[in-house]
Every structure is written in C-alpha cells, then in structure tokens.
Amino acid sequence: MNQHDSAGPHGSASRLASVLLALVIIELTAATAYIHVNLGGPLFWLNGLGYLALATAYAVGVAATVSIIRRFSWLPRLGLAAYTPV
Question: Which residue in 1, 38, 42, 75 has its CB near the most CB atoms, within 10 A?
C-alpha cells in the first residue's frame, strides 16, 4: 500500500495537492522549453529540447501505474533540479 492509497481524512486532499503541484511543475517546464526553443540558436534549441524531455519524463513518472516506473519517478525530478541551474 502506498501513501496515496490511504483513506485517512487528508488522503484525497493530499492527492489533489500532489496532482496540482505536478501539473504546475510540468506546465512551467514546458513554458521554459517553449521560451528556449523560440530564442533561436542551436544551444537554446537543444536546451529547450532537454526541458521538454524532462517534462515528459516527469509526466510519465507521475501518471505511471507500473511499479518499476513509479519506483524511479524521483529520477526526472533530480534531473530537472540539476538541469535548471546549468
């Protein structure tokens, strides 16, 4: 049983907050990718593709029902945190 399957008083509120946070992170990452792609130049374009790949990986990790994907869903978060300041 994972933490999101609990039937406690804050179970559905916690799940809603997690989903909203994930949507905001994906939206901001996609916006950053869009900005970089439209700045022009090959480095900005490649940087934008990197952000798009990380947003996709993050979305797959959030929406996955397969246990192996859920187990490694922390990896795109770490990658996004490391990629952002570079």
Answer: 75
CA 7, 13, 16, 21 torsion-angle sign: negative
d(CA 13, CA 35): 33
In terms of pTM, does the model score above 0.85? Answer: no
Can you read off the two tokens belonging to residue 33? 């990718």
Q: Is residue 72 part of a domain?
A: yes
Number of domains the chain is built from: 1
Domain that holds residue 83: 28-86
Token pair of 42 as six digits? 């090959």
CA 78, 56, 71, 2 torsion: positive or negative? positive
What separation, in Å, do the N-terminal and C-terminal C-alpha atoms of the chain show? 37
Q: Which two tokens stand for residue 80?
A: 């996004």
Whether residue 33 contacts residue 52, with contact meaning beta carbons closer than 8 Å, is answered with yes
Tell me: the pLDDT tens digits for 52-68? 999 999 999 988 889 99
